[in-house]
Amino acid sequence: AVPASAIVVEGNHRVDADTIRTYFQGTDEGKVNDAVRSLYATGLFSDVRVSRDGGRIVVHVAENGVINRVAFEGNKKVKSEQLETEVTSKTRGPYSQAFVAADVQRIQEIYRRSGNGNAKVTSRTVDLPNGRVDVVFTIDEGSKTGVKAIEFAGNHAYSSRKLRGIMTTTEMNLISFLKTTDVYDPEKISSDEDLIRRFYLKNGYADFRIVGTDVKFDADEGGYNVLIKIEEGAQYTVSSVRVDTQIPGVTSDSLLPFLKLSSGDTYDGDAVQKSVEALTREVARRGFAFAEVKPRGDRNNQAHTVSIAFTIDEGPRVYIERINVHGNTRTREYVIRREFDIGEGDPYNKVLIDKAERRLNSLGFFKKVKITNQPGSSPDRVIVDVDVEDQPTGSFGVSGGYSTSDGFIAELSVSESNFLGRGQFVKVAIQEGQNARGIDFSFTEPYILDTRIAAGFDLFAKQSDNTQYTDYRTFVTGGTLRLGVPITDEFSISPHYSIYNTRINIPDTTSYPYNDCQFPVNGVTPGVGVLGGTPPTLVDNCLTNGEASLAIKQAQGSTLTSLAGFTLDYNTLDNRKDPTSGLFIELRNDVAGLGGDSQFVRTSGDLRYYHGIFEDIVGIVHLQGGQITGFGSESQLRIADEFQLGPTLVRGFAPSGIGPRDISNLAAYKYNPLGGSTYFGASAEVQFAIPYLPRDLGLRGALFSDAGTLFGYQGKTNFTPGGGACVASLQAPTYTQGTCVQVRDSAAIRSSVGASILWASPLGPIRFDYAYALSKDKYDVTQAFRFSGGTSF
Amino acid sequence: CLGYDGEVTRGYVVDQRSLDQVKPGSSAEQVLVVLGTPSTTSTVGGTAWYYISQTVDRTFAFSAPAIVDQRVLAVYFSRDKKVERVANYGLQDGKVFDFISRTTPTGGAEQGFVRNLFRSLMRFT
Amino acid sequence: CSALDTINPFGAGEKYETKILAETPATDIYDQGLARLQKKDGAGAAKKFAELDKQYPFSDWSRKGLMMQTYANYQAGDYDTAITTGKHFYQLYPNAPDAPYALYLQAMSYYQQIPDVSRDQENAAKALDLFQQIVTKYPSSEYVDDSKYKIQVTRDQLAGKEMSTGRFYLNRRNYTAAINRFREVLAKYQTTRHTEEALERLTEAYLALGITGEAQTAAAVLGHNFPDSPWYKDAFAKLQADGLEPNEDPTSWISRTYHKVVG
């Protein structure tokens, strides 16, 4: 820098001469001008004049006054603190007329962006005795100026209402004060126009063009009228599809099956893109890693047809020099790098890079994944940069059920899907409720021995005392070992072995006298008691105060089940948490009998199909079914093995509310479900955004109808000792339980219709279901309302 | 049958036509034009360029890729940067053994288990 | 959310009234800051020193305030703020006497946040760059020795990262990628402890490829420079198993890079 003696500073009071000198990088004309300009830019000086006196430079400055305080008046919509950070005039900072004027514009812009186009901002200064000055900005916010009307011109194929539905910007209406999407913002309007262009291209309008958008501000209406002029052109159908390859050894027709559209279909922009991807992948697989696929459409304007040619030729021979991973503050690098099918030194292949990006996104560990290329150290080398941003992957789940008669059951779970950044999944769930108490721990390592096979184990202990649905308590403890073997991206097999012990006991206490016919309880069972109590009558006996079914009594004690099996999964859902399109099929088969007491073969299947009907309306079809048969010596099934189903089969029914039931004791039939051996269920649901509510509230609605049945009780019915004839129950004088079970086993279709509210609350996705049972068997148990919620942190 | 990816070439893509143009005596620049940048080299202008290519078979999505074929084209240069000789190494030349498991210790703060869990708990809102 | 504000009828927004803000002398603020530092209240001290900068902008006090603010934040472990105030100080007063200390505090702030090799080493790279600036720009400053040591540690960390990625590819038998990664360690981080392992890994990779010439050279250079290193024993054993001897083919690139640097 310049020696201090060469620059003389005059006129400065508060600002040090040295600080001013640091701005002078040199003494020549150019450097001095730079210095003057940057001194003005600091806003400290109202005037800076430079003159030369002999070899030295004399800098004469006149300092600006100092602001004592910056104040804002009349601002309701935007807080003062927020305005303070935006304006350049700062408390105790320099006062400069230019800065204040710029601040006025700045505040105006903030208000325009938040929807008050015609807010008026003025500024004034108040001189204070201590020579300082206050800057006051007065704001008249005025009424909200949003988008009054969105009109279209030239739209014949689709109505203006449909096109408006595609746009994120909406018109002002009754609840405008709640909405923010009706604020006029040019960038949002242009991004909406892209959405409309893509919509038209998807539906065959290859010539679609947006001619112009004129926006008129309507002062008295206090809003903007937006008119979007479009030219649809004709809807094109595909006349022919062809593949021309310049690559030796790759024939065109061998690639035809990979095309996603064929002649006769209406032209679809997205399908063309998908075909390009499929072709590139196939050609790369055949060893032509540098092939490039380019689609070309030549329109025939009279016949409104387009013939599409996919030309494949040798692209530049470029190799990947290095793959650099940045931003992974928590996830370990190998967890990211192993998702790439290609490595350093391999030919550059865009399709495999996109596939890796999709895989990284679906891991759910990252807020953002961005893969970019940079030129390498030589023309045929490229460096791939992978930028990721970690996000918290722990999740804290709360879910509960509410039934009209029994209040809440809650489950608390803590899970971490990127444990210690190693991509391992750990979950601890504790269940606490009136009728269930349990804990289970699960661990999964997705890459055992550096292969894509996932291995994991679960340990669980669950005591369910669902006395409001059944007359018995179960206590299951056990563990499972499981493997996950992906066969292709969508299809995987998971063999598993699990061993668990189920202990059934029937409470026989004063409050739960469910076994008092066999073991009378003093003071509760009629006819028993210190003074002999009141004798049992038809109306008041050991059955009327609730009694477990004989089948359940027979199943008391603990049974060890050791089973092995596998699950087949086919999953093309576009997003695991909140799927909008794709198919999920799961087939599960278990064989119990490798030791242990139970011996059965159980197969069950589950199919969910999601289909985006419209921009954000999702249709869901859910089919499920299952069958279990015992084998071996006593081939009857145990109570614990049979399917006990309720809301998971048909919403609107209580847990174990559907299926075979022991109705021999009509007073307590509700609590004696026996479970069935075969079930089927089907459900159709439509999820949609609730109209008129602003999108950022995160509320979605759903309508659904379920139907299903559970039947085929395979257990014993005659428990007469020695196998004799049944003895009827409620026989005078003891009015006690008979020796047979009267099973109500109807295969009637249970069905229900209902609605639910899905709320992506700050606490996480919460779902409220209300279902009304349309058709049910005489002895089914309904439960209309149910909610479950979870949060992620 | 379920050949998930089937056989995929990894590394340098060998092209027989251009291979034949590399004969002893051709210059380094010629080789660079014909074969492109080598997979790895000895120092630039050094004595040897290696073009390494592997054919990898992946029967299932889960199986680790197995090396089916491995070819190394070595181009040795004389002092005056002319091709001295060309050598080929096949899969059979490569020795198969497992690598030393020991690693040189490195520093840096290891993620404490509790701190890691606590940190993601803290960002609750 | 802001939408609810518009319907709140009472708040007509604040009214302006004149109010003169009190003015505490700079020395008092500075002493209060120092007192808090004594009490190990780094964050509180940083707030005090920040006030100094706000009340007396563009003065000598503001320079002292900014420096002490950086130091207080560093002590409080708030490394990100320490880096921002340190950078701000260095931009304003590049040739002030305590400028190297500002650089040093920034470098140490990055240095404290270096994670293990399996994660992004950006902090190590930034710390290395700042330590190098200290050594080149202020050779006589008291921080040079510590900076030189820290340079060695950060380079070792960066080399460790290259090695871990190299091993990743070696285990997957992608020899091209592995060899180029180990080359990078030899070329850029030759004075770190990882060179021994890099040479041994090169022997393994070249053996797996069948290019025995390069494998022998790598082992020879390893033996020549680190005769008693366990890595040399492994490399030697590997070659022995195939009836080969480590012999230095002087023309091979490994010996050339080595001789050029180590001489």
Structure description:
The complex is a heterotrimer of chains A (793), B (125) and C (263). With 793 residues, chain A is mainly beta. Chain A has a 17-stranded antiparallel beta sheet, with no helix packed on it. A 3-stranded mixed beta sheet of chain A has the order 1-3-2. In chain A, strands 4-6-5 form a 3-stranded mixed beta sheet, with helices on one face. With 125 residues, chain B is an alpha+beta fold. Chain C has 263 residues and is mainly α. Helices cover 71% and strands 0% of the residues of chain C. The N terminus of chain C is likely disordered. The chains are: A mainly beta (793), B alpha+beta (125), C mainly alpha (263).
Give a quick precis of the structure:
The complex is a heterotrimer of chains A (793), B (125) and C (263). Chain A has 793 residues and is mostly beta strands.
Q: What value does the Rg of chain C take, in angstroms?
A: 28 Å
For the biggest sheet of chain A, the summary is: 17 strands, antiparallel
The fraction of residues assigned to DSSP E strands of chain C is under 5%
Total count of strands of chain A: 34
Sheet-strand content of chain A, in percent, reads 35-45%
Helix-residue proportion of chain A: 10-25%
| Distance between the first and last residues' Cα of chain A | 52 Å
- Whole-Å distance between the termini of chain C? 69 Å
Structural class of chain A: mainly beta
Largest sheet of chain C: none
- Biggest chain pair interface: A-C, 59 and 44 residues
How would you sum up the global shape of chain A? extended
Shape of chain C: elongated
- Please, what is the oligomeric state? heterotrimer
Q: Roughly how much helix do the residues of chain C carry, as a percent range?
A: over 70%
Uncertain segments of chain A: none
How many individual helices of chain A? 10
The run of helices and strands of chain C is HHHHHHHHHHHHH
Number of helices of chain C: 13
What is Rg of chain A?
37 Å
Query: What structural class results from the helix and strand content of chain C?
Result: mainly alpha
